[in-house]
Design goal:
- This protein is an alpha/beta fold.
- It has 2 domains: about 5-110 and about 215-240, 3-Layer(aba) Sandwich (Rossmann fold); about 120-215, Rossmann fold (3-Layer(aba) Sandwich).
- The chain has helices at about 5-10, 25-30, 50-55, 60-65, 90-100, 110-120, 130-145, 160-165, 170-180, 200-205, 215-225, and strands at about 10-15, 35-40, 75, 105, 125-130, 150-155, 185-190, 210-215.
- It has a 4-stranded parallel beta sheet with strand order 2-1-3-4, with helices on both faces. Strands 6-5-7-8 form a 4-stranded parallel beta sheet, with helices on both faces.
- Helix 10 links the parallel strand 7 (about 185-190) and strand 8.
- Helix 6 (about 110-120) crosses helix 11 (about 215-225).
- InterPro entries: Iso_Racemase_Enz_sf (IPR053714), MaiA/AMDase (IPR026286).
- This is Asp/Glu/hydantoin racemase.
């Protein structure tokens, strides 16, 4: 950020599915008053392959419109939506969004990989709200990125409003069941509509390993890309690590 940018505070552009009710509140809860969140939405009601595929067509236009607000960075906050088409799709998506917005852009799937790399986590357990089809795609994506997925536990939900109705306590219980004695370096709670950021500190205390969430990884990554990573302390071990420059 320039000095003028610092005087006006920071601005994050956040692109979310239309049915997502979690990403914006979680971002705002862990950002200082001087950094504001500005949202754009893409049509999605159910977290299915077909709807996620159709939704991605709206991403560049959403990023372009956020660029009009002079944001410092843009985040595409949808996990499966940014890994849907396999290896390289997340990187390609970030490049498209950056070109459209004219500022650095991150996408959740790639943010998660960056977070796991920063934590040097090679073997993980994953908790998701998804159906088996999406869990399989997520496992394949993570393993292609060099991560050993010891287990992946999904809830079988497709309606995004049902996912948004889950509580942080639901997430905590699922994480504890997903780990269940596995020898892992970290736990990943997937989905930007799954309320889980509030229980990260407690889970890390109980498990003794890092716990990252889709929104936590995206927030950490976007703030690093925007140049104000050090402006606040987010929850969990991840926020003790610097985000490497692109």
């Amino acid at each position: 950020m320039t000095d003028a940018d610092a005087d006006r505070g920071g601005r994050l552009g956040l692109i979310v599915p239309s049915s997502n009710t979690t990403a914006e509140p979680e971002f705002r809860a862990f950002l200082p008053d001087g950094i504001t969140v500005h949202g754009a939405r893409m049509a999605l009601e159910s977290v299915t392959v077909d709807e996620l595929d159709a939704m991605s067509d709206d991403a560049a236009r959403a990023a372009e419109l956020l660029g009009h607000a002079d944001v410092d960075a843009v985040a595409y906050a949808c996990t499966t939506g940014s890994l849907l088409h396999g290896p390289g799709f997340d990187i390609e998506l970030e490049a498209r969004l950056q070109e459209a917005a004219g500022v650095p852009a991150v996408a959740t799937a790639r943010s998660v990989v960056r977070a796991l790399e920063a934590l040097e986590a090679e073997r993980i357990a994953v908790a998701t709200p998804y159906t088996t089809e999406l869990d399989d795609r997520e496992r394949a994506f993570l393993e292609d990125a060099g991560v050993d997925v010891a287990s992946i536990d999904g809830r079988g939900l497709a309606a995004n409003t049902d996912i948004g109705a889950l509580t942080p306590d639901d997430a905590a219980r699922q994480v504890l069941e997903a780990v269940d004695g596995d020898d892992v370096d970290a736990v990943f709670v997937s989905c930007t509509n799954y309320r889980s950021l509030a229980v990260v500190d407690d889970l890390e205390s109980r498990l003794g390993i890092p716990v990252i969430t889709s929104n936590g990884a995206t927030l950490w990554d976007a703030c690093g890309a925007a140049g104000f990573k050090d402006a606040f302390d987010g929850p969990g071990t991840l926020f003790d690590h610097d985000r490497e420059p692109l």
